[in-house]
Amino acid sequence: MKFLKFLFVGIFFGIVLVKSEAVSWYRIFEMFKFQSFHMYGIIGSAVLIGIIALQIIKKYHIKSIDGEAIVVPQKAKNYKANSIGGVIFGLGWALGGACPGPMYMLLGTGVFAMVIVILSAMLGTFVYGLIKNKLPQ
Amino acid sequence: MKFLLNPWPWYVAGPLIAVTMLILILFGKTFGMSSNLRTLCTIGGAGKYADFFKFDWKTQKWNLTVVLGTMIGGFIAANLLSNDSTMALSEATITDLQALGFSNIGATLLPPELFSLENIFTFKSLSILIISGFLVGFGTRYAGGCTSGHAITGLSNLQLPSLVAVIGFFVGGLFMIYILFPLIF
């Protein structure tokens, strides 16, 4: 039962991204061509509200539902990895139009081609794990 | 009900994505979809090959549950909350995609040229699906996050590594669309 709330979060998130077309290959193309405000509006408004909300959470020391202090984990400062990995991610995102959330949502909408994308993404993560120590961090 | 069935505008979707992140944070978790790829590798036995995959995947069950939910959400959105309207893409986008050889642009969420069952086993489509998935899976772990972890959570938390990663996402995306797309399509 304790997982049920996470199932609902996922359902909610999936509906939002599909209904707003953020999972669409066409919308990603349009975004990288700067031909519509749609994706920038989605990401921009999410971040703006996120910034304000996280500041409020920190200022008032709001606790999680388990009563724990809320700490948003710091991302590791590996700027070489952040930038090179980011570029590699961007190449794939623009090519296939799917990032790691939408690939599951699109499978749910009935696009079975996403099975291939998901398995390939797992393979990409697996290869990263194998050669991680040889990459510039 | 009609407003639910029509495509949702950005000023509805953006705030609701922020809500998704905040709910997970209030549940004592984080908003990061790409971690699940690592978890799935671990479940598949990748720990035998690299220490990176040696962790107790059961600690990530909650996030796999989110993934299951997103699939159900996708099903609901496509089958129960849809009126099959054509996407309102910009004219410039439609013109550009026509020039690259696409047709029926925006009739479905994804171009059938790449994703329909009839086309996915052509050499070109299959290569695109495999290469794009691989780059996303490799790049996200190397960068330390994806759109949810870096672009939404990291930027909301004003973290420099996330800004660097998001700039990287755009450098890669722009290179793909402006330089490589004319060669691929």
UniProtKB/TrEMBL annotation, chain A:
Pfam families for this protein: DUF6691
Stored InterPro entries: DUF6691
Transmembrane segments: 38-57, 84-105, 111-131
Domain of life: Bacteria
UniProt entry keywords in alphabetical sequence: Membrane, Transmembrane, Transmembrane helix
UniProt keyword annotation of Membrane present: yes
Protein name: Transporter
Organism for this UniProt entry: Cellulophaga baltica 18
From TrEMBL, chain B:
Domain of life of the source: Bacteria
Coiled-coil stretches noted in the UniProt entry, renumbered to this chain: none
Major localisation: membrane
Ligase is among the record's keywords: no
GO cellular component: plasma membrane
This protein's record includes keyword Cytoplasm: no
Bilayer disposition of the protein: Multi-pass membrane protein
Record field: transmembrane: 12-28, 62-81, 120-139, 160-181
InterPro entries: Sulf_transp_TsuA/YedE
Keywords carried by this UniProt record: Cell inner membrane, Cell membrane, Membrane, Transmembrane, Transmembrane helix, Transport
Protein localization: Cell inner membrane
PANTHER family found in the cross-reference section: INNER MEMBRANE PROTEIN YEDE, SULPHUR TRANSPORT DOMAIN-CONTAINING PROTEIN
Family to which the UniProt record says this protein belongs: Belongs to the TsuA/YedE (TC 9.B.102) family.
Protein name: Uncharacterized protein
